[in-house]
Amino acid sequence: MNIIVCLKQVPGTTKVNINPETNTLMRQGIENIINPFDAYALEEGVRLKERYGGKVTVISMGPPQAEAALREAISLGADEAILIGDRAFAGADTLATSYTLSRAIKKIKDFDLVICGRQTIDGDTAQVGPETAEMLRIAFVSYVSKVEEVKEGLIQVHRLIEEGHETIEATLPALITVVKEINVPRLPSLRGKAKAKSAVIPTWTAQELETDPARVGLTGSPTRVVKIFSPQRTRTGEVLQGSPEEQIDSLIKKLRGSQLI
Ligand SMILES: Cc1cc2nc3c(=O)[nH]c(=O)nc-3n(C[C@H](O)[C@H](O)[C@H](O)COP(=O)(O)OP(=O)(O)OC[C@H]3O[C@@H](n4cnc5c(N)ncnc54)[C@H](O)[C@@H]3O)c2cc1C
I want to staple 146 with a disulfide (CB 3.0 to 4.6 A). Which of 56, 158, 197, 256 is the partner? Predict the structure, then answer.
């Protein structure tokens, strides 16, 4: 079973600054991590490989530093990794990202299953999985919490819904997005770390993917972030002093003064 895992490197903190002119993240000096949901996607890919044989290929579209996330994925059990990187891909929205990922998946060609995380913790749109499946014209199941079985060209999964689970069967090749309930990701092994260190990670550019220039990067992105900002705090708190009785008196006076009671 040949599995492709889509993995994004994201800032490992919520304390990021936004460039006020371009409305994009300022990533300098920030520690990057594998998007947490993608760690579950990778773990599920490795478990399915252990169960059914085959291999796991991890792909990531991103800047050169995303190679570190791909090496980490190899230490966690992936067999191969490919960085999808080209200046032409910069500024991509989810549509352009999905198009580019789908081109890379088509180039890999021989695959049964694509696994994505449910969403990222930076872009947070949860659009890339379904959009990529649509561009590949393959079956898609979101919120997968368990892979029950893969048999005779079909995959049977449990899908998390508000008040329980659905059991869904889809024809392969398919793309699934996974939730954290699906597994507990493993830690890297010593052997895995050694393999990751020496692994050759190719970079696939726009030329190699034969992408349509009008569909990648900023040019291929029909959406723009117009403004991004943290909400301003307009309320200030006040800690009341004195005994509990005094604090209650003082609170009642304040509320009467503000005509709330
Ligand atoms: C309106 C808009 C405009 C944007 N403009 C810019 C911009 O100008 N510059 C810029 O840098 N970013 C921009 N972005 C962010 C960029 O679109 C996203 O980083 C990217 O498309 C992934 O979307 P997401 O993070 O919401 O992923 P989600 O859809 O939440 O991710 C779901 C899953 O898809 C897979 N996945 C997502 N991204 C990748 C990837 N790159 N490689 C491999 N797998 C992946 C992962 O498995 C992930 O768990 C913009 C986003 C939006 C919504």
Answer: 158
